[in-house]
Amino acid sequence: MAARAEGLTKAYGSGETRVVALDAVSVSVPHGEFVAIMGPSGSGKSTLMHCLAGLDTATGGQIWIGDNEITRLKDKKLTQLRRDRIGFIFQAFNLLPTLTALENITLPMDIAGRKADQAWVDKVIDTVGLAGRLKHRPTELSGGQQQRVACARALASRPDIIFADEPTGNLDSRAGAEILAFLRSSVDDLGQTIVMVTHDPVAASYADRVLFLADGRIVDELLEPSADSVLDRMRKFDGAGRRS
Ligand SMILES: Nc1ncnc2c1ncn2[C@@H]1O[C@H](COP(=O)(O)OP(=O)(O)OP(=O)(O)O)[C@@H](O)[C@H]1O
Ligand SMILES: [Mg+2]
């Protein structure tokens, strides 16, 4: 498994203000799988991603990245594992404005003092179609191009698994389709493992499997999703009586 959680619980606050964002979630993501996570706002999608990626600590349960149980790791080891094995694509691209596209892409490796595998980085840049834009700064790039830089940055260090929180949330449908096609091809051609949060049935249809979260629990799963089958399943959870 690329990532696994058993009985993962995450609670915020205490006493009267206690919120259970994740309620004993168990999930496994095999190597080379593209999983989409869907669910209403507040259902725990981002919390699940952050916990799986070691960006947030669990209140209870266990999490593994590969064979490493990250819920047992001390800060320094966790930081190291996150740096070496995990890529994260944030919704708000999190690019540094003073650096060029290329510098942004190689930044995590530069910080780690690790030499980039140049052939690999070239391949990633080529695949995301950024070759002509490498010297531009984020403000000189379109939203779609910035998101492609964020994708390339996540892929450049060849992480075992990539977590993407609504990577196409801010993009028009054409730029979104480019990113999704790229993520899909990184799974098919490069064996990448991806976990992606999305609200969009079309985006979810690029995945191999869709997990549905509600109130901090996984309530359903859909294999080989199509946009229509995802939409049908979403309606099921939408509560009775609501019309589109
Ligand atoms: N730092 C925090 N402190 C307190 N409560 C939090 C915190 N972060 C998240 N929550 C709560 O945990 C629950 C799950 O939040 P989460 O961000 O995981 O939802 P989500 O499914 O990603 O929603 P969205 O689709 O709106 O991004 C929500 O009820 C939220 O208010
Ligand atoms: Mg969220």
Automatic annotation (TrEMBL):
Residues 3-240 form the ABC transporter domain. One of its GO terms (cellular component) is membrane protein complex. Keywords: ATP-binding, Nucleotide-binding, Transport. GO terms for molecular function: ATP binding; ATP hydrolysis activity; transmembrane transporter activity. InterPro entries: AAA+_ATPase (IPR003593), ABC_transporter-like_ATP-bd (IPR003439), ABC_transpr_LolD-like (IPR015854), MacB-like_ATP-bd (IPR017911), P-loop_NTPase (IPR027417). PROSITE patterns: ABC_TRANSPORTER_2. SUPFAM superfamilies: P-loop containing nucleoside triphosphate hydrolases. Gene3D superfamilies: P-loop containing nucleotide triphosphate hydrolases (3.40.50.300). This is ABC transporter ATP-binding protein. It comes from Streptomyces kaniharaensis.
